[in-house]
Structure formats: structure tokens, C-alpha cells
Amino acid sequence: MTVSDSTAPVLSPRLDKFGHDLAMDKTAACTALRTDLEAAGGPLIEPLPDGNVLVTFVFEAAGVERVSVSCQLWPGDGMAGTSLSKLADTDFWYASVVADPRVSVAYEYRVDPPELPAEAGELLAFLGDMERAIPFFIAMVAAARHDPYNKVILPGHPFVNPKSHVLNLPKSEALAYDPDADLVGEIRTVTMSAPSLPGERPVDIYLPPGFREGERLPLVIVLDGELLVAGQLHALLDQAIQRGDLPPMVAVFWSNLSPTSRMTEY
Questions:
Q1: How far is C-alpha 212 from the chain's CA centre?
Q2: Can you tell me the mean pLDDT for 106-113?
Q3: SS in 3 state form for the chain?
Q4: What confidence category does residue 41 fall into, taking pLDDT thresholds of 50, 70 and 90?
Q5: What's the pLDDT at 2?
């Protein structure tokens, strides 16, 4: 099988089979691959001899220049995401990565996404310039696409048209979550500043059920707090504590000062 626009090897046995099937009957091969993606409920998951799994993201898009996927299964996956390779003579794009089967992760496909400067200093200058950075983020959101085979949408996603999906690998054990349950603990929003960081910002503090002032409990600091509160992480913790799956804890959701401030603060 040949792969255009990339030197990356085809690692997935299923895509190897797809390559052989293409030579016999292209229409039947594409139909069979779509059927397998539907059965998988999204990315293809294939076991490896060492106990890990091979996750292959496959997206179908015609007449486009580039497709990427944003997913933290790739170490160092940044805002630009990981580029997918085009399967020659088809409209399918793919990327494979080895993963621990106990992982749950979010991912998002993007079609012809805007590009960021490659050099670190230029990148920081770009993201610190709101007149350039804000249009970039708007374009990035516009480039996002649904995975038509995955019905699990990331809950509480802050964008108006959520297009981030959840991928639960075979041995993952996600905490149970009821989106309709009332919060038993408490969220307090305060304004805070830090000596080494500019400006004041809202910070959300989750306090577990029955919390008493002065009580000493484990403390969790959550970065990108505004996104994680929008994603209802505090509610998930609240329910897990009530069930006894987690001990009582205080969670501090530290928000970013602006959409681009995290690049310099972190």
C-alpha cells in the first residue's frame, strides 16, 4: 500500500488489509472500512503483543489540503495537533499511535486548520499578540469536525458547536457521572493574583460535602480551570466523593488570564 504526503509507515493491520482490498475493488474496500469504523465507534483499536493497543484515527475528507487530530495520546501534542497522512487514491486520512489500554482521552479532528509559527520565540510573540491570536483561535474552532462514528461528545465543551469526542480504550475505567445530579459540595469563585504572574483572575474552588473551615484535606490544583469547570470536572469529583470512589478533597481550578496567557505563564 502506498501513502501519499507522508513517509510514515502504515502500522495498522486493518489499514494494511484496506490497501490490499483497494487493489481488488475500491468501492467495496471503502465501504468495508466505513463499516469497521462504525463498529469501532470511532478510531480503530488493535491489540499489540506487549499489552498495549494501536489506536488509528481515520477521517474521510475530500478536496482538502490537510487533516489533523488534536489528542494527547501523542506526547507533546500542541495546539496544532498531529497531522494525518492521506491514504493514496482515497479520501481517507489516518494517523496511528501506541497507547496504554487503560486510558480515556478526548480528541478532535480539524480540516485545513490554520498554521502556527514553527520557531518558539515567534510562536510566543504570535500568541501574545491578541490581534493575531484571536483570529487564529476562531479559525481553529471553525476547522473542527465531528467524528461521524463516535457518538460520545466531550461534556460541557465551552464552544458553541462542540466537536470534541471521548475515546475510551478497552481497559479504561471512567468514573461514573450523572449530568442531572445536583452538586452536594460547593463551588466558590474568588478573585486571586500571584506575585510572579500578571493581573487578577477568577479562581473556582471546589469544597467537598461537609467541608469545615480550617479542615485539612488533600489539595488538587487544576490548570486551565475555566475549561475543566465548563467540562464539569468538579461535578464528577463531587459524585465520586459521595460514592466513596475518591476521598474528600479540595480542588482549585486556576483559570487563564486570557486565551493566550497560558503560553507564557506555563
A1: 36
A2: 92
A3: CCEECCCCCCCCHHHHHHHHHHHHCHHHHHHHHHHHHHHHCCCEEEECCCCCEEEEEEEECCCCCCEEEEECCCCCCCCCCEECEEECCCCEEEEEEEECCCCEEEEEEEECCCCCCCCHHHHHHHHCCHHHHHHHHHHHHHHEECCCCCCCECCCCCCCCCCCEEEECCCCCCCCCCCCCCCCCEEEEEEECCCCCCCCEEEEEEECCCCCCCCCCCEEEECCHHHHHHCCHHHHHHHHHHHCCCCCCEEEEECCCCCCCHHHHC
A4: very high
A5: 31
